[in-house]
Amino acid sequence: MIAWRKSSRSGGMSDNACVEVAHLGSSIGVRDSKDPDGERLGFSSQEFGGLVARIRRGEFDR
């Protein structure tokens, strides 16, 4: 069984509008929490780490 988890910062979201991540063998999976059976994205650990670093730097802020 895959253990999907979401950020502790999304705990107060009543509409479940967030993403979840899981270790999928040698990759990291990402899915929409509102559609757990839908499409999933897969990243290598290095790619996912790079994505997280860019998010933390605010590169995707509006």
Describe this structure in words.
The termini are far apart. The longest helix is centred in the C-terminal third of the chain and has 12 residues, at 45-56. The protein has 62 residues and is an alpha+beta fold. It is 19% helix and 27% strand. The chain is globular and about 30 Å long. It has one domain. A three-stranded antiparallel sheet has the order 1-2-3.
Topology, pairings included?
Layout: E1 19-24, E2 27-32, E3 40-44, H1 45-56
Which sequence of SSEs, written as H and E, runs from N to C? EEEH
> How many domain regions?
1
- Could you say which structural class the secondary elements and strand pairing correspond to? alpha+beta
C-alpha geometry: globular
Secondary structure: helix percent: 10-25%
Low-confidence stretches: none
Mean pLDDT: 88
Enumerate the strands of the largest sheet in spatial order, edge to edge or round the barrel: 1-2-3
Strand content: 25-35%
Given the structure, what is the number of helices?
1
Distance between the termini: 36 Å
| Radius of gyration, CA atoms, in whole angstroms | 12 Å
Q: How many E-type strands?
A: 3
Task: Give the quaternary arrangement of the chains.
Answer: single chain
Main sheet overview: 3 strands, antiparallel
Summarize this entry quickly.
The protein is of the alpha+beta class.
Overview features:
62 residues; alpha+beta; 3-stranded antiparallel beta sheet; 1 helix; 3 strands
